[in-house]
C-alpha cells in the first residue's frame, strides 16, 4: 500500500523528458520542449515506426470513449490524462452529446498548467493536479465532487498510466480501490505496456524511459488482465490494443511492435 503521507507534490523538472510531453511530441502536439523532441527522435531511430504505437494508444482511448458514450456513460475520470489535446475525451464526448462530465487528473505540474487554458471554455471538463496513487484525495477533491456524481456510473480510464506506477506502490491494489469506489454500471479501461510478445522493443523503451522523470515498467498480459478483478471484461476481452474493437470499416491494424495491451470492463450490479 502506498504511504500517501509521503506522496509529495511532484517537482517541476524541465531538464529531463517527461511522459506527458513525450506523448504529446509523439502525437505531433505543440505542448513539448526540445528535450522531449530530441528523446522522440532517438527512440524513433532505435525503434523505427514506434510513433505508430503511441497513436495506437490514443486510438484505443477514442474507441473506448465512443463505446462508453454509445452505452450511456456520461462521466469520465481520466487518471494520468496527460495534456488533453488532439482528440481527447471531452472532444470525443461533445461530438456526441451535450450531457457529459470529464475530470482529468495528472500529477505533472506543467502538464496541468498547460491543460487549464485548453479547458477554460469547457465547463463540463476540468483538470486537477493530483497523484492517482492516492485515490481518496482524487475522489474527494472539490473538483471531483463538484463535477462528477459518483452515485452515477462512471468510466475510470487508466490509459498508458499504470506502467509508470512502480511495483512498490502496489498498482494492482490501487486499481482495486478505484474499482470499489464506483457504482455498478461503471467501467474501467486500462492500457499498459507489455513485454511478453516483443521483449526487445519493450526493453528498449524501458531503457529509454529510465532517463526520464517517468521510468516505465512493462508487465505481463496476465497481470494486466487481473487488474479488472470482479468486473465483467467486455468483448473481445483484454488484447493487444489494435485487436480491441477495431473501427468497423477497418481491419485490425498490424502493429509493428506488439507492446500495448488492455481492455474494458464493467462493474456488475
Ligand atoms: C503517456 S501519458 C497518457 C495520456 C492518456 N492517458 C492517454 O492514454 O492518451 C501518461 C500520463 O500519466 C501521468 N502520470 C504518471 N503517473 C501518475 C500518477 N501517479 N498520478 C497522476 N498522473 C500520473 C503522466 O504525467 C502522464 O501525463
TrEMBL record:
Gene3D superfamilies: Vaccinia Virus protein VP39. Coiled coil: none annotated. The keyword Mitochondrion does not apply. Keywords: Methyltransferase, Transferase. The keyword Transferase applies. GO terms for molecular function: methyltransferase activity. GO terms for biological process: methylation. This is SAM-dependent methyltransferase.
Amino acid at each position: 500500500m502506498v504511504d500517501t503521507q509521503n506522496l509529495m507534490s511532484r517537482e517541476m523538472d524541465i531538464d529531463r523528458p517527461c511522459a506527458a510531453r513525450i506523448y504529446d511530441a509523439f502525437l505531433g502536439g505543440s505542448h513539448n520542449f526540445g528535450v522531449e523532441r530530441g528523446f522522440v527522435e532517438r527512440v524513433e531511430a532505435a525503434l523505427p515506426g514506434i510513433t505508430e504505437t503511441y497513436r495506437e494508444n490514443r486510438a484505443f482511448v477514442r474507441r473506448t470513449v465512443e463505446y462508453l458514450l454509445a452505452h450511456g456513460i456520461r462521466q469520465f475520470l481520466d487518471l494520468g490524462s496527460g495534456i488533453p489535446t488532439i482528440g481527447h475525451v471531452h472532444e470525443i464526448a461533445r461530438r456526441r452529446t451535450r450531457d457529459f462530465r470529464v475530470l482529468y487528473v495528472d500529477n505533472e505540474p506543467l502538464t496541468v498548467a498547460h491543460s487549464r487554458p485548453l479547458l477554460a471554455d469547457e465547463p463540463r471538463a476540468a483538470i486537477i493536479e493530483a497523484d492517482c496513487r492516492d485515490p481518496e484525495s482524487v475522489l474527494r477533491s472539490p473538483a471531483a465532487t463538484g463535477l462528477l456524481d459518483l452515485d452515477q456510473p462512471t468510466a475510470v480510464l487508466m490509459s498508458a498510466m499504470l506502467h509508470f506506477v512502480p511495483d512498490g506502490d502496489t498498482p494492482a491494489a490501487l486499481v482495486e480501490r478505484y474499482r470499489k469506489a464506483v457504482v455498478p454500471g461503471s467501467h474501467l479501461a486500462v492500457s499498459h505496456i507489455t513485454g511478453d510478445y516483443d521483449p526487445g522493443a519493450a526493453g528498449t523503451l524501458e531503457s529509454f524511459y529510465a532517463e526520464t522523470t517517468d521510468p516505465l515498467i512493462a508487465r505481463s498480459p496476465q497481470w494486466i488482465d487481473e487488474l479488472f478483478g470482479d468486473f465483467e471484461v467486455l468483448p473481445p476481452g483484454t488484447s493487444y490494443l489494435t485487436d480491441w474493437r477495431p473501427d468497423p470499416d477497418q481491419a485490425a491494424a498490424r502493429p509493428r511492435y506488439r507492446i500495448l495491451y488492455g481492455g474494458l470492463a464493467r462493474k456488475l450490479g
